[in-house]
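> call design_seq(struct)
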């Protein structure tokens, strides 16, 4: 991909890195991203691989609370989340994944920062996620995000193994108070419009 081509993309698609050979774009997902998101989730061997249909629906209905990263026009990673219906100032981050080939270069952190920036501008002030106790990479990633917001991860029990029907590990809840500007109720994102 040439730089010119990247710069001709829509304003919502922002190039964030241009090394000599690669161009990285962080943007909202489109329905066509459902298939590569499902593939990356399956290939991670860590995430719960939901049905391919779930990822297609996610890209259609929760695109304003999700982002994908493209490297040279290939989907390289994603963050998918939603605003909690009971607390619409809270972004729940459901899954984060980066294709094996693109790990260790700050892509997950960049996607999280972009998504948090997007939703914070609409009044979101808290991020929640769940992490299984053995997922050190995930914990490190969210701890780093918390540090960038001048805070620490708050942990509480959410789902324990007996809650699951299939031998699933615990999913502990982690909360981050985001540094955001003052906001009003009306600024909350509405995914249904
Ligand atoms: C977790 C994952 C998304 C990280 O992607 P990435 O692009 O390599 O992460 P980044 O390079 O942006 O690193 C973000 C932070 O996490 C840390 N980190 C990333 N992978 C790590 C690992 N395997 N072990 C320890 N720390 C790790 C980084 O050091 C960095 O922290 P820092 O800013 O303090 O240096 C990726 O490893 C992945 O897809 N894993 C499988 C799916 C998964 O577990 N998702 C998270 C749960 S939803």
């Amino acid at each position: 991909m040439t730089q010119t081509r990247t710069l001709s993309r829509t304003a919502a698609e922002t190039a964030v890195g241009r090394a000599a050979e690669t161009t990285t774009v962080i943007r909202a997902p489109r329905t066509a991203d459902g298939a590569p998101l499902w593939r990356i989730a399956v290939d991670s061997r860590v995430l719960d691989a939901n049905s391919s249909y779930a990822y297609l629906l996610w890209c259609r209905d929760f695109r304003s609370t999700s982002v994908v990263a493209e490297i040279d026009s290939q989907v390289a990673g994603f963050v998918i989340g939603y605003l909690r219906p009971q607390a619409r100032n809270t972004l729940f981050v459901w899954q984060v994944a980066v294709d094996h080939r693109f790990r260790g270069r700050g892509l997950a952190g960049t996607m999280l920062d972009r998504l948090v920036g997007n939703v914070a501008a609409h009044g979101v002030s808290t991020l929640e996620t769940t992490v299984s106790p053995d997922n050190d990479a995930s914990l490190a990633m969210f701890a780093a995000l918390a540090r960038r917001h001048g805070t620490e991860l708050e942990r509480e029990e959410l789902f324990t193994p007996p809650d699951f029907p299939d031998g699933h590990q615990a999913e502990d809840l982690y909360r981050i108070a985001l540094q955001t500007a003052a906001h009003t109720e009306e600024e909350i994102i509405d995914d249904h419009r």
